[in-house]
Structure formats: structure tokens, C-alpha cells
Amino acid sequence: MIARVVVDVAARQTDRPFDYRVPEEAEAWIEVGSRVAVPFGGRTVQGFVVGFAQEAEVEPGRLKPIGELLDPTPPLRPDLIELARWMADTYGCTWTAAMQAMIPAALKGKAERMVSLAQNPGAADHAEAAPGLSDALIAWLKRYGPVKLTTLLERFPDEAQAVSGALRRGVLAESAQVRDRLSVKKILTVFPPEDRAAAEAAAAAFPARLTKQRQALLHMLERNEPVPLRRLAEESGFSESIFRALADKGLLSIEAVEEDRDPYAGRRFTPTRPLPLTDAQAAAYRRIAEALESGKPAAMLLQGVTGSGKTEVYLQAIERCIASGRQAIVLVPEIALTPQMVERFKGRFGSDVAVMHSRLSLGERYDEWRKVRDGRVRVAIGARSAVFAPFERIGLIIIDEEHESSYKQEESPKYHARDAAVHRAGQHGAVVVLGSATPSLESFAAARLAPAAAAAESGGQADGPAARVCPGAALRSAEWLPLPERALGLPLPPVDIVDMREELAAGNRTMFSRRLREALTQRLERGEQTVLLLNRRGYSTFVMCRSCGYTAGCPHCEIALTYHQRSGVLRCHYCGHAERQPEECPACGSPHIRYFGTGTERVEEELYRAFPGIRVIRMDVDTTGTKGAHEKLLSAFGRREADVLLGTQMVAKGLDFPLVTLVGVIAADTSLHLPDFRAAERTFQLITQVAGRAGRHDLPGEVVVQTYSPDHYAIRAAQRHDYDGFVREELRARRLLSYPPFCRLALATLSHPELPKLAEAAERFAAALRGAAASAGLLKPLAGGSGAALELVGPAASPIPRLKDRYRWQVMIKYRGIVDAAGLIRQAAETLAGDRSAGDVQISVDVDPQVIL
After folding, report:
1. Of the residues 45, 209, 440, 442, which has the fewest C-beta atoms closer than 10 A?
2. 505 and 649: one domain?
3. Which CATH number characterizes residue 285's domain?
């Protein structure tokens, strides 16, 4: 039996299956998706079985056996192996990297050097053959070996040289074993006596000196279920040794039992029942239910204004999915959204829900993943990686707030969860529901432009703008399900736009406009709550000397340092570099150091100064870094322990608090003028989403948006809650400049410690890329025509030209039609790699990038 194994080695040249012989005793256990330890290049590495073959591609004498099966149950199902292959081809990553993204961190094992006593010599011979090995070390190895070499040297640090010599002489044997970062948690559990009558008789016959044992046994006889030993000792007041003594007598049994590390253990969730649906909700639900019953893959865009009841549609669709014997996955973009979503889903489905996100402990994540793999739950909810939940029969995948850029992973593998979900749906015959009040333009195009394009083609009409849309890697078309009104019939809150230029002209130099200050005062007087948004953390965005103009910058990145007043440090938000705030200018020695720009930390300080007695909860990366911080802060706000919830974009979506009647946007221009073609789209989405937090229940809401660009179409459209109006303006610009959704993008970023070498390498890379595209017949203009079209932009310096001591240049590909963009970049990279003068050039590939900075 020959297994085809992809080894966990981070190198493009080894990113293919290698043949290994399956030991006869393991043939019944090894399957596609199994994780194994195999010999590779003189060492032992982890690998994944991706298939089997009748004959090996190497000579029989060179065929090595699989060393060890690492899991009794394969961690990856065959459909995930195929999905990983698709991700590797689509996003230009390795097959191994894609598979690693699908398993919990606890299973990302590494080979450990293990040491044991050699088999031949006796104990006396060990000491003679390896002078310096102590009797204690030899005895310890005899009892515990094989042990990790690092553990052995930690225990016997003075014998390192003797151990090295013993390994060379063969007195000690060295091996390699792949060990995981974590194992299944087991706890000692006490089981009641099987023969109760015999146990009662034994208790009655205990002598007086064993009174505690008799009482402990009688206590256990009162229970009918197993109980953890530690808890039993605490409840009964008897020590654990008493119960162990009873087990030694055969009156009780104590066994190690698996226990889940449940992040919600002890929590009670109020059960909920399905709510009546509005006509629009009911229509959307019916279409989803029909698609579920068909068993055919489908994608649907559930576009509903904020407060339109998208979550209730999700819940009832999941209930229908479960009733059909299938499973559901729910993705949320922010960990901040998870507490309220978990509350809603646990309230509806109870223990049938697994939660998967990075703020859980390593053990909790592993155990929640095992619940899914073992079929103990039917709903998984989490951030983007939950799209890989190892369900066997997926019926529904929901992506809430689908427009969020956090669904695109920024490190390899740079996949988009939306496209991975659509591909998985194709494998399972499942339905993908994309939910948002402000859909991404790619999803909008798939639902509302792609159908028009198909109709134009079938009718033989001329090629028009709609016919040239390119939504994404997997999402080609979707059905549009609109929810145009709020579920409770409440109006969307009015939005006031405040021109901060007029505020400055009127002498108001504070960060709060007169309108926002007045509105805040009214809420404090009425006991209502406010959400304030500023999508920039820290105290000041840059520090400058007013004498010489020096600006504090990161020594490793081409970016200004942000001042954090509470910690008194200047910090780089890209590489993490931190330094103490300067007392004087390091360039000229002047004491005239000033702090410019505004972050959430400074807004918090100004709130306390402007409104004495105000209670503020601040939510940003600095305050939510610890486990459970999001839930703790949001729960406190829900209990009315604060008047204002101040935060970055994590407070802009999904939150629902009855007393929030005011939303203030401190600076709407924060993202509007970034050098990114999506800047206007993100600004519109952010304002619209945060505006939707106000007036969701009985009390009317109000929104105040402060801006220096009051006439920008994104700001004006957000004021009117006019998604279609914004899209019309934005599509006009996108079509003119050939940006998504009228083409697709692939970004190659090259980096090197030396700028001149990088510039030369970037030119050679671009030339190689242009040659590869020309050879494939793809260099055609994007402006018109049919078929594949491709345009190269660059090379040019990246908008942030240096990060982590490496200069950065980029080349962008714009394309339509069937184009293997990742393959073209790979060809050019291989050409560059053959040029020795390129040196230490690293190339990063990002297909369908969400950020081009």
C-alpha cells in the first residue's frame, strides 16, 4: 500500500506528494487526510496523506515507510484536502500552508529529538562506555526513556558533554518523534460501584478505624453518576486518598476520562424561540429554504438595512438546515461580534453550537474543533478560519457582514473566506448566504450586475459595463434577497453632517463639534447611551518637534510612531517597535515636542474633561488584548455601567443595545483619503454600519458625522442611507480606472534590505512577468473587447515603502477572463530566482487583495 504524502516543509520545490510505504499494521487506520510522521531529508517531519497509489514513482529500494500515524481519526476530510489544493492554485501559496490553516494550532506538531539507552549494552556497560554519565542519569533513562533531549539536558545540565559523547559512541540512541503542542485533556473520574448491594455490605463491615472510608463510600453510593475525583473530594470533605483507597479495594473505580475545555462552561443562555418574520424576511427565508431542499450549491446576497432582522433569518434557516440532517457554519468578521452572536445562537441551539476563534485558549480551540470533527455539534460559529470546520454534510454557510476586509487573510495563505465558502458549498451542495447592509462591490456585482451580463449575452446585446464584471475567485453569481426596512418598522436614524472647517472658523478647536457636544449632553441628562467611533487607536498619530520639524518615525518601517499616553510610549502599529516618549527633540535638542492627530485614547481623555462624571468604555486593540475582554466590556455596557462606548471599527457593526440613541463619528476622513481604491467604499460602509447602532428599539436615534470633506459622495450617500446611490458613483470611477469589480487584481510585493538591489530585481521581475503573459497571449487592453485581458502596473514603490527593515516594491496585475495570475507570478519568481544577483529578494503574492498598502 503506497501513500502519497505532502510533507510539512516550507519550500516550493517540495510542495508535492511523495511516496511512502504504509506499514501493514497501519493499513486499516491510514486514510486520506491522515496526519503522519515520515522520514524526509535525514530528519522526521509531519505530513498529510493526500491519496494512495498502486505503484510508487520511486524505485522499491528507495521507498521509505511511514514512521508514525499521529491521529487515530484524520484531522482533514478529503474535501478539505481538495479545497487546500484549490487554495494553493488560486492564491499562490503552498499546499502545505493551506492545509496547516485548516487544523487547530494544537495539532501543528514539530519533531522532537528523543534520547534513550541503546538496546545492546547492560547498565554497567553504559557507564563504562560513556565516561561522565552518572548513575542517576542512566537510571532515569531506564525508567522514563525515551525522553526529549532538551528535557534530559535541563535535568542533568552538567552532563551535556558526556551525553554528546554517548550519542556518538552509540551508547545512547537518538530518534525523532513528532509531538503536538497539546493533547486531549483527561481528568480522574470516580464511578459508582457496579454491585451496590455488595458495596453497602462492605461499608457496614468496615472496622471503626476506617470510619472515613465507610462514610466516603456511603457518600458515593448516594450518587448515581460518575463525578470528577477533585470535585468529589471538595463536595464530600474527604481527601482524594480516601477514594483512591476504596478503589484499591475494588469498591469504586477511578478512570481517566476525556473532558472538554469548554469556554462557556457554567454559562446559562436564555432559550429563545423563532420570532414572527416580516414579509421581506419571510420571502428571503423561503428562497433559502428552497435552495437547501434542492441540494444544489447556491449563493445568495441577503442585503438588509441595519436592524432589518438578518440574524433571525440566519437562525431560522439554520434550524431548517439542521432539520434536514445537515450542518451549518456561521462566520463573523470581528471577535467583538462573537459575544452577542454566541448569545443568540446558544440561546436558540444550546449545546449544539461550537465556537471557534483566536481569543480562546489553545486547549479550548482544540476541543471546540474536536466537537465539530466528531459530529457532536451541528453549528459552528467563528471568525474566517471557521470556514474550514470539519463537518461531513454542510448544508449552509452564512457570512455575516460579508463586506468586511477581515475575511481576507493577510498572511500566507492569503485566502478570502467568502470564496473558500463558495468552493466548499460546491463540494457539499450547500447554500452560501452573504449578509450585509453595505455589500462589497464584488458581491453586489455578483448579485445585481452578473445577471444583467448573462441576460445581455443570451440576448446578443453589445458588450456593456455589466458584462465585464469579475466578482471574485469563486463567487460568479448570486441571488439578491433584499430587506429594505427595519424589522420593527422603525425608521433609520437621521444623520447630521458637521463641517469641521466651519467649526474651526467659528473658534471651536476641540475635537467635539457644537452639535455633537449638545447631543451628548442631552443623552447624559436623559440616561441614554452613546456610541462614538474613531478608527484610530492611541493618543496622537504622530509626534513632531515644532523647532526643527523632526517627526518620530519607526527605525524599521517608513511610518510615523503613534503616541500612547497611558503607557508613555511611541509605538509602531506595523512591526511593534516601541520607545519611550522623548523629553526633548533627538535631532535639535529642543523641548518643543508636540503631539498631533487624535486617537481613541485622546478622545477618552477629552470626554472626561468636557463631561465631568461621564462613564466611558474604550474598545480598541489596546483594551481588548486579553482573553474575554470583548465580552466583558460589551456586557458592562449592556448593563448600563457606562454612558459612552468609544472605539475603533469593532464598535461599528453587529452590536444591538436598546438605550443607544446617539452615534457620533469623530473623524469620518480617517480612511477616506488613503492611497487605496477602496477608501471611499470603506468609509461609506463604516459610517453606514455605525449609524445603524442608533435607535434600534423604542427610543429614536440620531447620528452626528464630523468631517472635513462634507461634499464627498461617500459621506453624502451615508447621510441618506443610500447604498444604491453610492454604488452608482463608485462604479463610475471603478469602470473608468479598471478596478474591481470590472477586473480582478493580483499583487506581487517584492522586498529586500537594500533599496538599489530591490529596484533592479523589481524591474527584472516585471520584465519576466510581462514575458510570461505575452507568451500566454494575455497582454490585451482591459478597456474593451472579449476574452482574457491583462494589464501590468509597475514596478513601483509600495505606498508604505519599508516595513520591518525591508524595502518594498510592487507589481500589480489587472485581468479579466480565465487567467492563472498566481501561476504567472510563480513563473516570473522562478526566473528571478535563477538570477544570483537578486540575492535576498522575497516575493509575496496576494490574489484579490483587499489592502494595497
Report:
1. 209
2. yes
3. 3.40.50.300
Is the pLDDT score of 460 beyond 50? no
440 shares its domain with 567? no
470 annotated to bind ligand: no
Mean pLDDT of the chain: 85
| 355 beta partners | 381
Contacts of 412 by beta carbon, 8 Å cutoff, 6+ apart:
93, 94, 97, 844
Q: Give the range of the structural domain holding residue 85, as residue numbers without chain letter.
A: 2-109
Single out the residue of 441, 410, 335, 419 nearest to residue 682, CA to CA: 441
Q: Which letter, b or e, does each residue of 642-674 get, where b requires 16 or more Cβ atoms within 10 Å of its Cβ?
A: bbbbbbbbbbbbbbebebbbbbbbbbbbbbbeb
User: Is 572 annotated among the ligand-binding residues?
Assistant: yes
The answer to whether 93 is annotated as binding is no
Contact 15, 89 (CB under 8 A): no
Query: Do both 476 and 364 map to the same domain?
Result: yes
746 three-class SS: strand
Reported pTM: 0.84
Grid coordinates representing 303 are 442585503
Backbone angles phi, psi at 165, to 5 degrees: -65, -40
Distance CA 233, CA 219 (A): 11
Question: Which 3 state secondary structure label does DSSP give 660?
Answer: strand
DSSP 126-163: HHHHSTT--HHHHHHHHHH-SEEHHHHHHHSGGGHHHH
Within a domain: residue 331?
A: yes
Our count of domains for the chain comes to: 7
545 annotated ligand binder: yes
Residue 127 CA to residue 644 CA, distance in Å, equals 72
Provide the β-strand partners of residue 540. Answer: 563
Q: How many residues in total does the chain contain?
A: 853
420, 452, 483: which is the final residue of a domain?
483
Asked if 841 and 757 sit in the same domain, the reply is yes
Q: Could you give the 3-state DSSP secondary structure of residue 769?
A: helix
Read off the pLDDT of residues 140-181 as tens digits, 9 standing for 90 and up: 888 777 888 878 888 888 888 888 888 877 788 776 666 666
Give the pLDDT confidence of 508-518 residue by residue, as tens digits. Answer: 988 899 999 99
321 is in an annotated binding site: no
Query: Treating both helix axes as pointing N-terminal to C-terminal, what angle do 279-294 and 310-323 enclose, rounded to 10 degrees?
Result: 30
Is the pLDDT confidence value at 245 over 70? yes
CA distance 142 to 161: 20
272 within some domain: no
Confidence of residue 496 (pLDDT cuts 50, 70, 90): very high
The enclosing H or E element of 498 equals strand 495-499
Structural domain contains residue 238 = yes
* Tens-digit pLDDT profile for residues 72-92: 888 999 999 999 999 999 998
If you average pLDDT over residues 245-258, what whole number do you get? 79
Clarify whether residues 17 and 102 are in a common domain: yes
Q: Among 781, 774, 811, which Cα is nearest to 796's?
A: 811
Closest of 138, 764, 75 to residue 374, by C-alpha: 75
Establish if 852 belongs to a structural domain.
no
pLDDT value for 125: 52
168, containing H or E segment:
helix 160-169
Question: CA 444 to CA 224: how far, in whole Å?
Answer: 58
684/440 Cα distance (integer angstroms): 11
Where is the domain boundary, 138, 163, 179? 179
Which of these, 261, 316, 263, 247, lies nearest to 631 by C-alpha position? 263
Instruction: Mark whether 763 and 832 lie in a shared domain.
Output: yes
d(CA 716, CA 796): 34
**CA–CA separation, 487 vs 311, rounded Å?**
11
Angle CA 86–849–469, to nearest 5:
80
3-state helix, strand, coil in the chain (%, to 5): 40, 25, 40
The Cα–Cα gap between 459 and 196 comes to 82
Based on the fold, state whether residues 105 and 117 are members of the same structural domain: no
- All cell numbers assigned to 818: 480565465
Phi, psi of 482 (to 5 degrees): -90, 145
